[in-house]
């Protein structure tokens, strides 16, 4: 987390749905406000949009971005089609990337490429982005969804490729991934597989190569109990907390409620910030007295510990710079002032 | 789990034991019926058979396979001797492989090679299989047991080698593995190490290269409590469920009870199949109306989710084709019919 | 754990602190007795010592080792400065390594190099050690602290480099590591990230290349509850048990209490040793009767299981050879005698 580029939330919105207003969800995402506004909005031309609506979905993105993007506070990253095992799908992906860059390249930050395979396939996707950049003259980055066994197998080399290419972010795709590996929910409290090794590797390789790392969607949006169906807020929060714990920069959202929760959870808690500020202050004082390591509230603190507390403060500052109302709501004025002062 | 080749159970049986009938366990395995019949039977010439009995064990396999194999519904994979750190053991392994191929090659599906080291050692084992195939004219595959630090270190390259070689399956060997790494059961409810990272990697690399992945033996067959010793069925079931959760194709069995439990657990539960069929039906209907993603029973379902449900149905169909009595016992007739219809 | 070189405890002691006696903690470490004496003492010239005191800290090590090292039963491994991302720090590290080797090389076993990056950086550190060895004529080994995303990414290649170089041990540095990845303690019982994948990989790669593997520091030395602050002995014990479970050879200590606990936990428990001895005896008897695998107390035991029990006995013997009072205290005389007899 040397990365203070905000991506607490990666919200996909189908760019075309079979309704009178086929752009209904796309507009909702672009017009969201407050905690429900994602840091990254991902207009979805891939699995969220039915085959018959792909063209209309692309048209929706082209029509609406010029109107909404200028007032959208976050970044915009359409998801295009791709597939390591299907050239026809890749060809559609190349067309979508070229069309988006040419038509609304000024309103995009990048494109999200799903279902990539081994390193060679990621390079092919990046070449399509590079070609679109050359053609359109607009700077566009690339995020990939890690959701195949091949991409997981080559993750280290793929991430290193990201050091000097348009690849800027790794996103996890657990649903396709579970299908490839044959993961199952065999019942019981544990539920399905949750791939802790993949999470650790994604966080590590992103950090080793200055990429962003973003978690996977949580699709059990609602729960039913005793006849009543309700938003599954506890399980989603636990999912996002788990992603934050291992150092992912953000989480995937499928719903405005999820966006609100993930935006909040990827902000340090009041307790985290309070501890960070207090210990930075105390350690700074101890250093002035010539100490290298000192016990503060029972914790042995040294330069390494300090970096963790500084991360906390830097995240708060980054959010404060971009969405001041959010930090003002979360922390009392005195704590926030001390946090901004120690940075 | 694109793999519908059945290997829910990998049951080892010592091919020679110090009894009047030294083939007692081998015959039991070959003659097992119903849920106690393993998908793969592994006559063991390695650790399960004492040094003095190796020759008799090999003779048992040669004598009994022509009689029993034709009626055995599953596959037969003898485990031979091997050792990355001992040439004499490898030489015995080569002889065993050659002898098995020449004498009962028509009744075998492959050989299981234990204690392989780095990629080069796996290639040496595969060369022995290839030589035996050339010599005997019988097609035989190879499974390896991943149970050394070296094999784990090279797992990715070893699995890739499996793409275009006789290597078809990766099996985990936790007992040797724990000894190599120095893992300990320090007491408490967690017990010994359980290597989640290795499990994830094995499932991933097998899937990336179209290999089968099979779990490790659970050796605490019986438990004692308050003076009474009984079959440790709860712990074994939890062990198999954990392997199924991360997408392994099958589990190792040391006992007919374990075979029965693993055969059942590697079949989708009634609840899994019911959910899969219902959601495939509902999603198909939604697609017909032009929807790409739709919320069904609170879950956001799209093409990726669909693949998971299709996996469930495909596994049921594969078992149905091979062991119809098992699927008929597990699912009611209506559900099974719907499952076979949506496939 | 083919490794019986003792390193149950890796205790860092700041080599210079802002007190009248700036060597206070260094002397405490060197003079510690009984269970509080670490197997490895690590005089810290890096984060534990403030910038202004680095020179005095180095002088303390040079002054005190000739006096204390001859009577210190364990090994002595100063931690020098290093940083993959800062040449000036590396230059200080090279000077410290050269100075230590030239002045007190006879009293050192090796140096600990922190914050290494990718393989090339580890090679650069090793070259500094090699140069100091050539210059001074004293044999010195190297341990590295794995605490950057880059080192984790290259861990396999780094460990392989250790096969034929002065690199002898891998140590985990979770505080810097969490800062690099952006790991967080988001509250709740789970606390911060605990990197099970890294632990598994470190244990595996160390075993594959005959290196030692040592866990990371636990910095929450004390806990407060209802106004009273006390030593956090339960959490540290759980931390060390977790490291022992996956096969690490030792644990990091920041305090004499931690050293005592880790020295004890990295000895087999009485129950472990008792089981190991009983089953070795029973299996040996069964082998004499021609059995390859036999069920003992409900567990299926074969040659692979035996290796685990032999590991237990070998660890006890190694500690017995070095610190006989510790094994005599932990096990009754009869059990210890049987253990030494079966080895």
TrEMBL record, chains A, B, C:
Write out the entry's keywords from A to Z: Lyase, Magnesium, Metal-binding
- Domain HpcH/HpaI aldolase/citrate lyase, first and last residues per copy: 36-184
Q: Per its UniProt record, what Pfam families does this chain match?
A: HpcH_HpaI
Source organism's superkingdom?
Archaea
Q: Which residues cross the membrane?
A: none
Q: InterPro entries, per this entry?
A: Aldolase/citrate-lyase_domain, Citrate_lyase_beta/mcl1/mcl2, Pyrv/PenolPyrv_kinase-like_dom, Pyrv_kinase-like_dom_sf
User: Example GO molecular function term?
Assistant: magnesium ion binding
Note the NCBIfam families from the entry: malyCoAlyase_Halo (NF041626)
Q: What is this protein called?
A: Aldolase/citrate lyase family protein
Species source reads: Halorussus limi
Taxonomically, what lineage is the organism? Archaea, Methanobacteriati, Methanobacteriota, Stenosarchaea group, Halobacteria
């Amino acid at each position: 987390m040397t990365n203070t580029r905000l991506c607490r939330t990666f919200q996909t919105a189908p760019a075309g749905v079979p309704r009178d207003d086929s752009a209904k969800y796309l507009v909702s995402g672009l017009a969201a406000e407050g905690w429900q506004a994602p840091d990254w909005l991902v207009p979805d031309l891939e699995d969220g949009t039915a085959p018959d609506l792909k063209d209309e979905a692309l048209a929706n993105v082209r029509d609406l971005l010029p109107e909404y993007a200028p007032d959208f506070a976050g970044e915009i990253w359409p998801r295009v089609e791709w597939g390591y095992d299907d050239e026809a799908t890749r060809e559609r992906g190349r067309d979508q990337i070229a069309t988006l860059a040419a038509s609304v390249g000024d309103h995009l930050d990048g494109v999200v490429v799903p279902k990539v395979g081994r390193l060679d396939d990621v390079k092919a996707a990046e070449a399509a982005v590079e070609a679109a950049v050359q053609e359109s003259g607009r700077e566009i980055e690339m995020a990939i969804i890690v959701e195949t066994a091949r991409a997981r197998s080559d993750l280290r080399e793929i991430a290193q490729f990201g050091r000097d290419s348009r690849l800027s972010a790794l996103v996890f795709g657990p649903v396709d991934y579970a299908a490839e590996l044959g993961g199952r929910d065999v019942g019981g409290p544990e539920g399905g597989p949750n791939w802790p090794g993949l999470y650790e590797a994604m966080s590590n390789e992103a950090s080793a190569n200055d990429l962003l790392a973003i978690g996977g969607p949580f699709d059990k949006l609602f729960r039913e109990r005793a006849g009543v169906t309700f938003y599954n807020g506890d399980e989603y929060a636990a999912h996002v907390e788990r992603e934050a714990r291992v150092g992912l920069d953000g989480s995937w959202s499928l719903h405005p409620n999820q966006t609100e929760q993930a935006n909040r959870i990827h902000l340090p808690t009041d307790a985290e910030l309070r501890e960070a500020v207090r210990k930075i202050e105390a350690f700074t004082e101890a250093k002035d007295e010539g100490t290298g390591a000192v016990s503060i509230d029972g914790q042995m603190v040294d330069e390494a510990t300090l970096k963790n507390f500084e991360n906390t403060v830097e995240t708060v500052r980054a959010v404060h710079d971009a969405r001041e109302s959010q930090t003002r709501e979360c922390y009392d004025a005195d704590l926030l002032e001390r946090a901004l002062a120690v940075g």
